[in-house]
Amino acid sequence: MIDLQERWTPTQAEFDAFAAVSGDDNAIHVDPAFCAETTFGRTVSHGMLLYAKLWGMLKRHDADMTQVSQNLMFPNPAFAGEELVLEISEAAPGRLGMRVTRAADGTECLLGEAVIAC
Fold first, then answer.
1. For residue 31, how many other CB atoms are within 10 A of its CB?
2. pTM: predicted TM-score of the whole model, two decimal places
3. Cα separation of 2 and 62, whole Å?
4. How many helices (H) and strands (E) does the chain have?
5. How far is CA 77 from each of CA 28, 55, 102, 108, rounded to the nearest angstrom?
6. What confidence tier does 26 reach under pLDDT thresholds 50, 70, 90?
7. Which of 91, 102, 108, 112 supports an S-S bond with 98, CB 3.0-4.6 Å?
8. pLDDT tens figures, 2-23
9. The sheet that has 67-73: what strands, in order across it?
10. What residues have CB less than 8 Å from 28, skipping those under 6 apart?
11. How far apart are CA 77 and CA 44, in angstroms?
């Protein structure tokens, strides 16, 4: 049975590093001055950075885990400097529920499922 939870506070430096590695350097992720003028008011995490943190958490639990597919939704933004709760739970054999929420108010930033090889 898999039931994992961690807390993480993303930083602007992590957003910048992920932008450099992924090539996604959209201003919404890397330009605080630009973001200050948007409805968000601050930089927003890349959705796949959130997923990468979840997958890293899972691989620390079981280094031999292999993913077959994933289905992800990003209903709300996650911001630099705001603590997040990362959760993975076994929904059924070979299926993992994944969720990232803001620690302060429980707002969901990532909802998804990963299918793993059994």
1. 15
2. 0.94
3. 10
4. 4, 5
5. 11, 19, 9, 8
6. very high
7. 112
8. 999 999 999 999 999 999 999 9
9. 3-8, 84-92, 95-102, 108-116, 67-73
10. 34, 35, 38, 40, 43, 44
11. 6
Per-residue pLDDT tens over the stretch 34-61: 999 999 999 999 999 999 999 999 999 9
- Contact present, 56 and 31 (Cβ < 8 Å): no
Q: Give tens-digit pLDDT for 103-113.
A: 999 999 999 99
Tokens of 12: 């602007």
The CATH homologous superfamily to which domain 3-10+45-116 belongs is: Hotdog Thioesterase (3.10.129.10)
Token pair of 104, please?
Answer: 């302060």
> What digits encode the pLDDT tens for the residues 74-95?
999 999 999 999 999 998 999 9
State the amino acid at position 6 in one-letter form. Answer: E
Residues 94, 7, 118: CA angle, nearest 5 degrees: 10
